[in-house]
Amino acid sequence: MSGLRLGSQRRKLDRDRYRRIGLGVRRVSRVKTQGRLDYRRNLLLMVAFSLLAVLIISAANAGGYFVVKVDGKPIGVTQDKAVYDQIVARLSEAEAAQAGAEVRLANKITVEPAKKDKTQKPLSADELAAVLRANVTFLAKGSVITVNGQEIVALASEEEARGVISDLRGTYIQAIVSSGQSTVEDVFIREDVGIKQKEVPSGIFRKRDEAVRILGRGTDKTLNYIVQRGDSLWSIAQANEMSIDQLLQGNPEVTDGDFIQEGQNLNLVVPNPYVTVASKEIVVFTVAIPYTVDVSYDGSMWPWQETVTQQGRSGEKEITQEVTRENGKEISRVTVKERVLSYPTTRKITRGSKQVPPMGSGQMAWPVQGEITSYYGWRWGSFHEGIDIAADRGTPILAADSGMVSFAGWNGGYGYLVKIDHGGGKETWYGHQSRIAVDVGDRVAKGDVIGYVGSTGNSTGPHLHFEVHVGGESRNPLSFYK
């Protein structure tokens, strides 16, 4: 009870005290109310300032000027700062798609506020993208093919890089096998070829076929020339500042003695391979074994007469060789085995040995009426075995002396040719005839018509090519005329 009374008394004293200081109580209440108002006002001011900042930033992004820098170097001005991230993302996606690998930007790009400059036109989004692409580098993890430690070409994946090495061997084997004669025993690369993983600029990545071409030729550059009418290896080499040897090196299918054809495609890039693809192959082929000729003589037959008593036939043998090539060029060829498939058959001939008796008078008649246009001796770098007598086509050709026809027919550059044996080892020849008037074995007298002037064989016009032979050697025909 005493406790309750003490509590009541204390509350009463408090009320009395509050009444005495009532004015103070009211003042305290007003101070607390004013504090709450100040807090609300400050909060409203903070929100207002935040909204103002957002508006200012938005306004700045909408109409301000920003300089774009790559590694500290200004590359252009834009009014749209926010579009930068979108452009970089778009460029990264495009580069990754082209490279076939994940990429990252190798440069530091900054966008900084700049003063408005009326002389500098702001870049559009597309223009900014183009400028950025020209000034930045993307890096990607790739597989770099090395040759003897030297980095040669980069690809997007190790699988692609290994495929390149496989393609080098496969292409080489295909070229050998296509000949139809070879069996490839081994194909290998002489250099130390490796693959290492390395982050490189994505722009240097190469496709598989390009990499094969670079390793095999030393470059992926191709430059071709279509042969035109009148072209020669010399003229093409000169026009392209090459030597004939370089032109042939770039076109191993062409040899110095070959004639190039109009429309033929020639490579004007001289290969300088990074790798040497070598091969060992077995080549099997057959060759003919030539037959021999066995000649017997019959005194009852003239020397120009002969009879074949047994036809000759070539034999055949199979040859096995080991061929070593480097980059397609043959380095060595060794015969490892020979096997005779068939033996040759000897050709047997019976030839006449009957001596022709002297028939001529020794004093020869002029064979045709005409003018001498070429004399006996050296002419145009070769020896002229007779004399040329120009005459109209169809002019009769006369036997220079009596004798027997030992040959009458076609004989290569002589065209239609007649040979007359005058006995004692003396013989006269009459070439380029248009028509022959005698047969082998005919006896002719000096002055008989044996044929007619023509221009057959290697001839520049109608004339008689006239030769005199004694003991099988040519003599100057004019030495037999006084």
Description:
- Helix content is 28%, strand content 37%.
- The relative contact order is 0.07.
- The protein is α+β, with helices and mostly antiparallel strands and 482 residues long.
- Helix 3 (83-99) crosses helix 4 (125-135) and helix 5 crosses helix 6 (208-217).
- A hairpin with a 2-residue loop joins strand 18 and strand 19.
- The strands form seven sheets. Strands 17, 20, 21, 22, 23, 24, 25, 26, 27 and 28 form a ten-stranded antiparallel β-sheet that branches.
- It has five domains: 2-60; 66-136, no CATH class; 151-267, Roll (Membrane-bound Lytic Murein Transglycosylase D, Chain A); 280-352, Resuscitation-promoting factor rpfb fold; 371-480, Glucose Permease (Domain IIA), CATH 2.70.70.
- It has eight helices and 28 strands.
- It has helices spanning 2-20, 22-63, 83-99, 125-135, 158-177, 208-217, 233-239, 244-250; strands at 65-70, 73-78, 103-105, 109-114, 138-147, 150-155, 182-189, 193-201, 224-226, 265-267, 277-289, 293-298, 306-310, 315-326, 329-342, 347-352, 371-374, 377-379, 382-384, 387-390, 396-398, 403-410, 416-423, 426-436, 443-444, 449-453, 463-470, 473-475.
Low-pLDDT regions: 1-37, 39-62
CATH class of the largest domain: Alpha Beta
Query: Structural class of the helix and strand makeup?
Result: alpha+beta
Mean pLDDT: 84
The total of beta strands comes to 28
| Percentage of residues in strands | 35-45%
How many domains, as an integer? 5
CATH superfamily membership of the largest domain: LysM domain
Note the main sheet: 10 strands, antiparallel
How much is the radius of gyration in Å?
Answer: 53 Å
Gross morphology is elongated
**In whole angstroms, how far apart are the ends?**
190 Å
Number of helices: 8
Work out the helicity level: 25-40%
CATH third-tier fold name of the largest domain:
Membrane-bound Lytic Murein Transglycosylase D, Chain A
CATH architecture of the largest domain: Roll
